[in-house]
Design a protein that fits this description.
Number of strands: 9
Oligomer: single chain
Low-confidence stretches: none
């Protein structure tokens, strides 16, 4: 992972503090290499706010939202360093100019589509791995360790006791985490793209969703192929969520990240009907009573959902847009 990407030259911790507009003491505090935030029970002294979500299969997901000062520091690292490093061509999640649409498009009208899901994508990427990554980008060990400390977190025991969250890891909710995850996955993307090419298949990835597709030859070997994928991922330090693996042949709905890819890209009919019903009820009864999830800006929320449908299926999006225009907003 060495290249001439024009990342800033930061030689000493003092240089890093200056680049981040911090004092040396503040830099040590935010990097938290001794995990004081993990040990302290006073939430005011922690750098993150936490939400623990039930994933429905007995597992949990912890959303770790950095507080404003740390978030600004992470955004500085994202814009100044991480955004300069090109992702693998197969990566479509969290990449400018790419989307769910570009992720699913290569798999339209294929004989068979294989979808695989990674288990605990962000927390499986350790703090040590992130520090190693910054060293590979050319930063001295002390600087790399501080950058890694700023970009990772250990969740306090009173919030969550799951071992994967107790050690430093990429926090789901930090602005640096998506880019770092894509960079950490670069070698795996290379290996999976090569494996797909050798099998006559196509490969794309959207965050923790992996998609492969191909014709008759790939169809005959897809089960064995999925085992090879799982083995590569294991060697790279990731794990497959085997219960979510799907082999989807023609004749069944081939869906990827909420997008149907059988003959052309489309959204799920149930999702379209649900959104159409919400918009129609907003026209008939007013939008206030339809905001059941308590969105702070319900209008912007609906605008975003309609825009998403337009990006996938312009014709259906146009119909929803017409209903949206008829809503009487207070």
């Amino acid at each position: 992972m060495v290249g001439n990407w024009g990342v800033p030259a930061i030689v000493t911790p003092g240089d890093l503090a200056d680049w981040l507009a911090l004092t040396p003491a503040e830099l040590d505090w935010f990097a938290d290499l001794k995990a004081f935030g993990y040990k302290k029970r006073n939430s005011k002294l922690r750098h993150y706010r936490y939400r623990v979500l039930d994933k429905g299969d007995g597992a949990i997901r912890v959303i770790e939202a950095p507080k404003p000062r740390l978030k600004w520091i992470q955004q500085r690292i994202l814009a100044g360093i991480l955004d300069r490093i090109p992702p693998h061509p197969a990566a479509h999640g969290f990449v400018k100019g790419r989307s769910v649409k570009t992720f699913a498009a290569p798999h339209v009208s294929q004989r068979v589509v294989l979808r695989m899901d990674l288990r605990d994508f962000f927390p499986s990427i350790s703090g040590v791995r992130i520090q190693t990554l910054f060293r590979a980008l050319g930063y001295p060990e002390k600087v790399a360790d501080l950058l890694g400390g700023i970009a990772t977190n250990a969740v306090p025991r009173d919030v969550c006791r799951a071992p994967m969250y107790a050690r430093p890891h990429l926090p789901q909710g930090a602005p640096t985490s998506p880019a770092l995850a894509n960079i950490c996955f670069y070698r795996a993307d290379c290996r999976l793209a090569g494996l797909a090419e050798s099998a006559g298949a196509r490969y794309t990835r959207y965050a923790d969703d992996l998609a492969f597709s191909g014709g008759e030859d790939f169809d005959r070997r897809v089960e064995r192929f999925s085992a090879h994928v799982a083995a590569i991922l294991h060697e790279e330090g990731f794990a497959v969520h085997h219960r979510k693996t799907r082999i989807m042949r023609q004749g069944v709905r081939q869906h990827l990240a909420g997008v149907v890819a059988n003959r052309r890209l489309n959204i799920w009919r149930a999702d379209y009907d649900r959104l159409k019903a919400i918009l129609t009820n907003c026209v008939r009864h007013g939008p206030t009573g339809q905001n059941r999830d308590g969105h702070t800006d319900f209008r912007a929320h609906l605008e975003g959902r309609v825009s998403y449908v337009e990006s996938i299926n312009p014709e259906k999006g146009r119909k929803l847009r017409e209903i949206l225009r008829r809503i009487a907003w207070a």
